[in-house]
Amino acid sequence: MKKVVKFGGSSLASAEQFCKVGSIIHADTSRRFVVPSAPGKRFKDDTKVTDMLYACYNLAEEGKDFKKQLNEIKKRYEEIIAGLKLTLSLDEEFKKIEKDFMSKAGSNYAASRGEFLNGKIMAAYLDYAFVDPADYIFFKEDGEFDADKTNDVLGSKLQKMENAVIPGFYGSLPDGTVKTFSRGGSDITGSIVARAIHADIYENWTDVSGFLIADPRIIINPEVIETITYRELRELSYMGATVLHEDAIFPVRKEGIPINIRNTNAPDDKGTWIVESTCQKSKYVITGIAGKKGFCSINVEKDMMNSEIGFGRKVLNVFEDNGISFEHVPSGIDTLTVFVHQDEFMDKEQQVVSGIHRLAKPDTIDIEADLALIAVVGRGMKSTRGTAGRIFAALAHADVNVKMIDQGSSELNIIIGVRNDDFETAIKAIYDIFVETRI
Ligand code: ASP
């Protein structure tokens, strides 16, 4: 059995947290490949080392003195080293970082040092080999992640090793320059490593005991999702990103490796399993509810639209030309509605309206703002009658006006559009009907 274990920033924010991580790794000999993040927040108003590095490098780039800030960062690491009673010194590394900052090595390089240095500590602490991802994780010239090359090179390196620490978050471009993934990208590294070594499980250790059925800012103490499929998680992407980086699914999905989200501060909790497919029934008909405010709908009407070939394409072309991605496109016989993120759309709205008029020649265009979209997701829906009926009855009881309904053909999700103001009430009503009253 081979496991890749990734630890997030809060799991590695202090020596105390490192000790918890050490116990977790030592408790299971199959935890052989470790992917650390940079030290995160130790308390609520603390600053993540990654943010400190960005700020410090900004000063360097502006030609200002950054020594004090770099020293603060060094102190964070030294505190961890001292707390773990290691003899390790990072003096040489920090000298090099200072020099590289002076010669403006780039903000990606700067940010990557957070994981690099934490990886050095982790390797010393566990007595595992250190593997620098700059040599084994590759991006193409245009910045796109090079999955095939990485899988080949990283796979042949790691498969020969008994154990290793591979810092998260970065790799390199063809010219050797360090490049990072987007924020939270250590999750992606963990997934890449899991694929490369054909791991049995990718454990992603964080500070929550898994995905919750609904947002805890709206529902008090929501239950944890025990098992969720990759596809369900994609459908719930409005909520997913805070626990797991959205792109972390793709590498392991290629190999059908399950991801287990675990809590470093509650290691006995089973967490959430993210799997390709399962015959395990979810406890409730729905697996999760997630939503987001701040959408706009653009309602395009034209008599006989249904028989006009290419109408939809013309309308969507206008959004493409303006660089706006659409979220949902429900349609009626003579209407087509496009849901977009309000902040992406606002500055371009008049261009879009005139563009649609020019290209698609509709009768009217009507825009509505301040809408929220709620995704109710569950593989259980397929085999259960009346799910939609229950959702809408609950919303009617809660006095929520439904502005849009979209059920994906996979019968995995139902998307509901409501006014921003009704968002919380709607989520509570849906959670209530499926989880609290357990129907
Ligand atoms: N340290 C990086 C960040 O704060 C990457 C990560 O933690 O995954 O975004």
Short description:
With 439 residues, the chain is α/β, with parallel strands linked by helices. The protein has helices spanning 15-26, 49-61, 67-83, 91-102, 107-126, 147-158, 186-196, 230-235, 237-240, 249-255, 311-321, 342-345, 349-360, 387-397, 423-436; strands spanning 3-7, 31-36, 129-130, 164-165, 170-172, 178-180, 201-206, 227-229, 259-263, 272-275, 288-301, 326-328, 335-341, 364-377, 404-407, 413-419.
Commentary on this structure:
The chain has 439 residues and is an alpha/beta fold. The protein is built from 15 helices and 16 strands. A hairpin with a 5-residue loop joins strand 15 and strand 16. Helix 14 crosses helix 15. It starts with a strand and ends with a helix. The model has no long low-confidence stretch (mean pLDDT 94). It binds aspartic acid.
Terminal Cα separation, in Å?
39 Å
Q: Give the radius of gyration.
A: 24 Å
Report the average pLDDT across residues: 94
Question: How large a portion of the residues is in β-strands, by DSSP E?
Answer: 15-25%
Uncertain segments of ≥5 residues (pLDDT<50)? none
- Give the biggest sheet: 8 strands, mixed
Helical content band: 25-40%
How many β-strand runs? 16
The side-by-side strand order for the widest beta sheet comes to: 3-4-2-1-7-9-10-8
Number of helices: 15
Tell the overall outline: globular
- Ligands present: aspartic acid
Structural class, please?
alpha/beta
